[in-house]
Predict the 3D structure of the following.
Amino acid sequence: MKIDSAIQHITSVQAKGVKSKPSRDKAAGSAAGSVSDNVELTGTSSLMRELEAQLAELPPEDAGKVESIRQAIADGTFEVDEEAVAEGMVQETIEQLSHQHNR
């Protein structure tokens, strides 16, 4: 995939969710030959930005846990809890089905 086509795809995806408000002064906008759009951010948007900033400050993983798992795999002592894996798969499936149902 070329970079140009990827950028065009991203731009078109972003533009689909954007709604513009008509200019309050249509005559002035027409006379000047320009169009202006207004963007209004909700409280949810501000909260999302705060959460993103907090997440960015967190370490990407628990380095100690990663190292202990890596060592257990290398030693051949790592054991998989099949029941926990199965439960996680069931929960994820329930969440996905619930999300699809709510659409």
Residues 44-103 form one domain. Helices lie at 3-16, 26-32, 43-57, 63-75, 82-102.
